[in-house]
Amino acid sequence: MKNLIKFLFLGLVLVIFLIYNIVPAKEASSLDELSEKFRKALLPLPKEINPKGIGGIKERSVILNLRFKLNSYNLTPEAILYLDALGRAISTDPNLRSYVYRVEGHTCSLGSAEYNKKLSIKRAEAVVQYLVNHFPLQREQFEIVGYGEERPIAPNDTEEGRQKNRRVVVVNTLKKFIPSKFIGKDFLNVKVKYVRNNQINELKNNDILTEKDGYAIEFIPKEKVYVYIFQVSKKSIVPLFPNEEFSKDLNPVTPGRLYRVPSPGKWFYLDQNKGTEEFIVLAYTNELENPIKICKKLLSSKVISKGVESKPIVIRPEEMHQNFETSETLTPSNMFIWRLVFIHK
Fold first, then answer.
1. C-alpha torsion angle, residues 20, 26, 30, 33 (rounded to 10)
2. What is the pLDDT of residues 221-259, one digit of tens each?
3. Would you say domain 16-176 falls under CATH 3.30.1330.60?
């Protein structure tokens, strides 16, 4: 009788989690089984079931009860088991590998709200760092959010409840992930750096820049090529390189040399027009007759985002010729196109 009651209770718990489209990370008989549970929990639902998802929820998610110790964001062996299963699920499924994921950190209510907010971010960062270091996943594929103690799933008046609240939730946002570089021969290494509070960091896809942040584009050519860099917003296309206003360097560029725009020691700063912007870098073996026309063609093909939550659309190699009506002979094998989208906030 006790076993029957236990079985019915577990069945009820499973139904509840399926209704709310959230699957908890709990013990499984094998890593493969746990990975398969995560895979099913994160895959988009077929439209014929419900276009808005189960219970009207569009996003698909997994609760990772990683059992963080109080005031800690260190990953335990049990946490690593769950992350290995999650990393395997995302990286081996072609469908899951094509999405952006939001990693949410949460805490119990012990400590100040400000401290818990910072701790929750560190917990989410620890999860993302592990996934990126151990699986073929990219950092810009993950958005990190720290909710601190704001969203408990259990009462905080018992240690059991507090332990449940010390968790990380991984959400499939269902937004398509667009790698920074997506077409062409590997002519360049490109990075965008920004300075904030006297610290220099690398800008990733969908990161935020404010008017107080300085930023610069750096690139190292692998071959002698012609490079063209543009900053694009909804209102303008600004050529950053070659442009003698920002740098004295000209095309063609020299292999192995570090180039920086603007010149070393200087930074760009944003204007008052907020929204989604992007950097587009083109590189070609010969001088382009009209590089800005190519840039405009990318935009006219709806490559640029129109809102903070939207994502640009990749132009596939087979679509190159029909989208680029230029006099140059441009093919996917000999032209480099690199993009990075950021939020001007």
1. 0
2. 988 999 999 999 888 899 999 999 999 999 999 998 999
3. yes
- 8 A C-beta contact, residue 208 and residue 260: no
Q: Helix (H) and strand (E) counts for the chain?
A: 7, 15
In the chain, domain spans? 16-176, 181-344
The answer as to CATH 2.70.50 being correct for domain 181-344 is yes
Torsion angle, CA of 300/333/258/343, rounded to 10 degrees?
A: 30
Exposed/middle/buried for residue 324 (C-beta within 10 Å: 0-12, 13-18, 19+): middle
Is the pLDDT at 206 greater than 70? The verdict is: yes
Phi-psi region of 73 (alpha: psi -120 to 50; beta: other; left: phi over 0): alpha
- DSSP single-letter state for residue 96: G
Contact 189, 222 (CB under 8 A): yes
CA-based R_g, the chain, Å: 23
User: Virtual CA dihedral for 194, 199, 205, 207, nearest 10 degrees?
Assistant: -100
pLDDT one-digit tens code per residue, 14-40: 333 333 344 444 444 478 888 888 888
* Residue 86 reports pLDDT greater than 50: yes
